[in-house]
Amino acid sequence: MAKSDLILLHAPSNYDFRERAIMYGPISDVIPSTPIFEMYPIGLVSIGAHLERNGIRTRIINIANRMLKDPRFNVEQFIKKLSASAFGIDLHWLPHAHGSLELAKIVKTLHPSTPVIMGGLSASYFYKELITYEQVDFVVRGDSTEAPMLQLMQRIKSGETFDDIPNLSWKDDTGGSHHNPLTSVPTSLDEMPMDYAYPVKSVLRHRDLAGITPFGDWMRYPITCAVTCRGCNYDCLTCGGSRYAYSNSFGREKTAYRSPQLLVNDIVSIQRYLNGPVFVIGDIRQSGGDYADRFLWSLKAAKVKAPIVLELFAPATSDFFEKINAAIPNYNIQWSPDSTDEEVRRAFGKGYSNYEIENTIQAALENGCKRFDLFYMIGLPKQSYSSVIQNATYLRHLLREFGQQRKLLPFISPLAPFVDPGSKAFENPESCGYRLCYHTLEEHRQALKNPSWKYMLNYDTEWMSKDEIVMSTYEAGIAFNQLKMEYGLIAPKIASGVEARARGAMALMKQIDRIVAEHGLDSDKMMSLKQDADILSSSSICQKKEMNWPAASFMRNAPRILWAFATGSELKYGA
What we know:
Strand content: 5-15%
Largest sheet: 7 strands, mixed
Shape: globular
Distance between the termini: 35 Å
Radius of gyration: 23 Å
Structural class: alpha/beta
Number of strands: 17
């Protein structure tokens, strides 16, 4: 096993998911990963690539995925055999509050003299509390920690002091906490290495494909992403990646962009290894029309043929889609209007109308869009139970107008399990119509041990209780499922399976409630429900595969990967 200076570990959301009966519900139905959130953040790749370029041997190990794929995988035995100068564990998404800290505890128990470093948006928000945990030695704060991580690793290896490393929280020899200023906030992402050969090289070096696999089903569906920016120009009320959150919690006053040319280089680099869809994270219009035009012109010149998935954060015109169609032969669109109720949408921070949405859909479909995904959410301000159900009524109108092409796919999911830390709704819940029941990191860590996603929710609203959020989610899911079957978007057999799981989940949630009422949250009686909970915690409001665009499996891409290495891995368009 090759020696590493830094080993980056990704934990499951709840470390005990294999032993506990937990009804996670549909919290991951519309994302690639399972409810244990085994998909690690893309930041681990950029950190690893940056450190490797500067002489720090770095390895990523997806512990969550290994636990998921092999019920007999012994984490303690595996960790004990590892050797490194430091271990890094991400706490990017708050649903990892339990798993990340448990994994850190295991690492510290087995390697007591090896530093444990934590980072990510949630780690950055709760840094003062996080550094007080015995198993945590360092917290690297901010949304761009490549440079501070390099400095920290160099100091760990040399034995020098840490008091001038930006963005760093650290403990001295007495256990006292220190918090250095958050001053490393790059204004551009052009220096950020996105070396898509790095994960492949890591597999060859460590002979560990399972360890670096991004999420459970990635081998069959190898979707990748390209990052346009860090930060955001928009202020969605519950989003921990909003402009408000970045400014108040992560020191970012202005969105930092990757130049259009480098973004295209990233996509071309990905395509050398994988012939699958590339999801471009962030609306390419955020930095203005010139940025979008330069990106599309460069992409056209690069002759990328694989599916490209673009995000919209706001309505778009026919002119925009004409440019996309001319540049990308196979493109898809994702957009999250969140509600069909315009009042709810405005309260959430999105001021556009349904008329503008319809015009955008029409413009896209008239200009070569292969698929247009719409995402709606439950748990929003001013959103009542009836408002949730009425989403389906409006969507029937949309599908009647656009459904004949079978390219418009609607999805709905709950805002779960947490309102994001750092968001406006988390910081000022009452003024936003939210009531929070968990505030600290420890409270959220404990909540993730609860027997169902209803008891994990860290909020309810003025308009809906937790029970209403849960039950309206399943009812809306059934209604969306029925609509998609009626308009030929999914097969009757798939629709039947989704409805059966949704109704089974509703019954199981009520059964859990009865056990809690009679025996409490930690009752051993929950274990009798584990098999059902595991089955009904996936594809209960939509079939997860509905999300997938056409993609060759990883194994079918193997010849492409070998060819890329044989001919050189650094080829970039326009270099």
